[in-house]
Specification:
The structure is a homodimer. Chain A has helices at 4-7, 9-19, 53-56, 63-81, 100-116, 167-177, 183-194, 200-209, 222-233, 246-255, 259-264, 281-290; strands at residues 34-37, 42-52, 85-94, 120-128, 133-143, 158-161, 212-217, 236-239, 272-276, 296-302, 307-311, 314-317. By secondary structure, chain A is α+β, with helices and mostly antiparallel strands. In chain A, α4 packs parallel to α5 (100-116) and α4 (63-81) packs parallel to α8. The mean pLDDT of chain A is 94.
Chain lengths: 330, 330
């Protein structure tokens, strides 16, 4: 019989989906969040996530950082949909040899993550587990007409992101492969692993602007996120301005590794990946600047469902791969 | 340093609580569910729970039953508050050697649990974990004036439950200690472990009746539930009609064990424990009968905060103990 290790996360989700009786859904199953109608204008927005010590926590990350990150992962999905998070519930599975101060650090990190984005932890559950497990469930109220889903991208739209890619992937490589790099660069890479930020202000501003046709966060990597919009919207992408972080380009040069690989196929990054209606580009761009962020144009949506990258005069196919639980085996 | 094993679940929750910035709450922290205001009349009702394979799944329980139970645990808390569950999110931590059919069975059980009570699974997350972990998060909309909290019990109220106690405790004993009992009794005991039911119809009917002053489910055992209402309401209880299941009395006699212990200090039972305003007793009782259930009077609320049981002419103190994670070590 096939083990889940062989199946991989996407096929497991497929199996689960087959077993479910799905009701008519406000937001299609598989989008970043779920929605339940509250009234004509509003929807309850819901999300659950699980962080597991063994697979999701890199070496030397503190428990405060782990707690904070467990929350930020969730907030990032709300950011991508343009919904303000309100209340968070946390279920904690704790190994029996955890110490009192471990719990305190973890709880402070969880609280810090929530407060940073204006949410509060309002309930939870705790029990013993073989490995540290943090399951966060987030609730918010969204205006139904302002939700940014994955399925609205149309040919001609501009593809954009809220930041540069590759730093987290390099950071994880540093931690797992013990590579040596200059200390300032090291600090910046590790910071993106240990202290990720959700683009909540950007997401809320973009949602209000009405300029966005599709949106997703990039927690499974840039390539994967593009493919998710592609699948949900039935369109293709031509990326001609790959948003690689300058430090990552420098790192790739030094270590003779492929920067495209680092920027496209990473994961655990929390930028927003968006498609913007062309005529609203300036409005969207201004809306993000107004909250202190920046919107980077990286390509355009095309009719043909291919996914290609223009890079140094060549056309490269963007593959549907990235960070996947069970299979990646960090 | 103190490990969590020594601390126990309640102290761990205390530590977490200290680290949190709590907002003004519609429902006090620590009640069965959390609430967020939606409008003048309605509240979003939220709950998260975590079931861990190692500690929460007895031997020979099937994965279908495990999935179903993970949902029923959550529904039971909604039942106790009188809130109809609408949408469920499930985060699944799966051991790497789980098989395809294991996932299918688990997912079918989860779906069955949700559908049985009119809810739907609308989203989730999955990842690898050392042990099976199922975290369910439930959402519903409650009428604010009909919520049944823990803190409204007043002297003179009647204490009542929706069913008899002890069968699950005996069932767990049978599974863990390999005791021999007649096969019909064995079936009934194991059924209460493998196929627990939430008293949702009873909870909804009682909430509509307006007769209830305090309510909780009995997932941590009858004694513990009584003490929770006691703590939250600042009252005492005199229990004079301990609701022991007849099969449990019979079992206790045969095995020369204390039936009071079995009925009071178990856990994983999903009856409702309620206090009812005396003048509304008939109304409450009728409301429960109308949905096919029964309301059993077991005692009364008193001013003195003691917790006592009248049993065979003796007055016994009811201790604040029951099933507790980390410490019980099933």
């Amino acid at each position: 019989m096939t083990t889940v290790k062989k199946l991989g996360e996407r096929k497991i989700i497929g199996l689960i989906l087959e077993a479910l009786t799905l009701p008519p859904m406000l937001i299609p199953f598989g989008d970043d969040v779920s929605g339940v109608e509250i009234d004509d204008n509003r929807a309850a927005i819901l999300k659950i996530d699980m962080l597991v010590g063994k697979t999701d926590v890199p070496p030397t990350m503190s428990l405060w950082q782990v707690g904070r990150k467990a929350v930020v992962m969730n907030i990032s999905d709300f950011a991508a949909k343009g919904v303000k998070p309100i209340a968070l519930l946390v279920a904690l599975g704790v190994p029996a040899d955890f110490l009192k101060r471990d719990i305190e650090q973890l709880a402070k990190g969880l609280n810090a993550g929530a407060r940073e984005y204006g949410a509060n932890i309002v309930g939870g559950d705790t029990g013993e587990a073989s490995d540290l497990v943090i399951s966060c469930s987030l609730f918010g109220l969204g205006k139904r007409n302002l939700l940014m889903l994955r399925n609205g991208a149309r040919p001609g739209d501009i593809v954009a992101v809220t930041g540069f890619f590759g730093k987290t992937t390099v950071g994880l490589k540093l931690l797992l492969e013990n590579l040596v790099v200059p200390s300032a660069a090291r600090k910046s890479f590790l910071n993106s692993v240990f202290r990720p930020n959700a683009r909540l202000n950007e997401g809320l501003a973009l949602s209000r602007s009405g300029a966005v046709s599709a949106s997703i966060d990039s927690s499974d990597g840039l390539a994967w996120s593009l493919h998710e919009i592609n699948r949900a919207s039935g369109v293709g992408f031509e990326i001609d301005n790959l948003p690689i972080a300058p430090e990552v380009l420098e790192f790739a040069k030094r270590k003779r590794t492929d920067p495209v690989e680092l920027a496209l196929y990473g994961g655990e990054e929390y930028e927003l990946v968006l498609t913007i209606k062309q005529r609203f580009w300036n409005k969207a761009s201004q809306a993000v600047r107004d909250v202190g962020g920046s919107l980077i144009r990286i390509g355009r949506v095309v009719r043909k469902t291919d996914m290609v990258l223009q890079w140094k005069g060549k056309t490269i196919s963007i593959e549907p791969r990235g960070w996947e639980h069970f299979k990646s085996g960090k």
